[in-house]
Write a structure and sequence with these properties.
DNA polymerase, domain 1; 13 helices; Rossmann fold; seven-stranded mixed beta sheet; 308 residues; single chain; alpha/beta
Amino acid sequence: MCGIGHIPVLPNEVLDALSPSDGDVIVDLTAGRGGHASMLAKQCAPSNVILFDLDAQNLSFASTRLERETSIKPICFHANFATAAQTMSKQGLKADVLLADLGFASNQMDEPERGLSFLREGPLDMRLNQSSGRTAATIVNEYSEQELADLIFTKGEDPFSRQIARKIVSERAKEPILSTTRLANVVRDAYGSKARASRMNPATRTFMALRIAVNDELMALDALLHDVEASCRKGAEGWLQPDARVGVISFHSLEDRKVKQSFTALEKAGLATRLNRKPIQATDEEVASNPRARPAKFRAMRVLHASS
């Protein structure tokens, strides 16, 4: 696995729920290092495999890996999955299997220059697409104290958001906060004595909130769920086949809540069938071999014909 740099989470559960079949169009909305896409494609003889990813390097790696392991040359889009419906419709493509893994690839976490890890010294960047957009440093050094507190509370769900925001503003007045380790230390100082009692690193939620904001992750998820719903209502005219299987792996309660509400609403409207009532999570065995699978939650549904 060392050359691949990422282990896909919940592999067996994803295969069981999305059940790829010969002739299917398989779409991986977050290709990463190609683990899920390759795994799905090996289970059948798909007519097409389509990959989306904001990270150009990972997208290229995933494409090469898929072709090497399956002899399938995928269709690749260096784009946010929020654009998937529009992009596929323009190309006249319809998905039979659709997967979105909302986590980030392990290699992204392990590369200090990306600024995603509070355990490694690096620039405070956090952009998955490093060719455009604002960085986490911009947010940390330019947002007001109230804006920072709101961001850390709503997207990171950190109960110490006000103390953290206050400390950030105080420390950046002395010198801009431009590195991951300095921000992590600032957050730890804001926690004070409570840092020792915290189950996780005090910086975890702040870094998560910043990453979500930098990459507009919740907005992208909202757009995807909206487009899935729209396709269910359009039936054969949509970008999802009437029997399409749709799966989402989330790593944050805000994400999982949105997916649950969307899939439940579609089922109540008679437009889809949920394939699991409760989110599927990693077994103890998987967590032991891949600790980053611990927070993963997987929900899947099957699209039904739109009601007349």
